Amino acid sequence: MQFLGIGPLEFVLIVVIALIVLGPGEMVKGAREAGKLIHRIVRSPLWRDVMDTSREIREFPRKIAQEAGIEKDIEDLRRSTQGVLDDIEHSHHSNNGGKFADEKEENGSGNQGEDNG
Question: What's the CA gap between 97 and 95, in Å, rounded?
Fold first, then answer.
């Protein structure tokens, strides 16, 4: 889980540094002020605009595909690509089974004729 690009370990590190720098009493006051600041930022109209713009940017490729009418073509490509990948994976697994058996036979017969001395 990340909040404002900060993961849990980074958050713990920030808390430990704040505890060392500010001390326990000032840390509570600082946390309260930081909470108020974050609350004001998240409730601000600017933040809403940024979040709306971010959402629009993420949805932009889907909207373009929808407007161009190529969603069905893209889905067909995904299906056929997945089918080809499945076929490759299946043939790879079936070929590896035979390949490993052949290699074992070759290594076994090759080791018998070697001079170890």
Answer: 5
pTM above 0.85, yes or no: no
Please state whether 78 falls in left (phi above 0), alpha (psi between -120 and 50) or beta: alpha
CA distances from 16 to 6, 34, 82, 105 (A): 15, 15, 48, 61
Asked if 71 and 65 count as a contact pair (C-beta separation under 8 A), the reply is yes
Per-residue pLDDT of the chain (117 residues; tens, 9 = 90+): 566 677 888 888 988 898 888 888 888 888 889 899 989 988 999 989 989 999 999 888 888 877 777 777 788 888 888 888 888 888 877 776 655 444 444 555 444 444 444
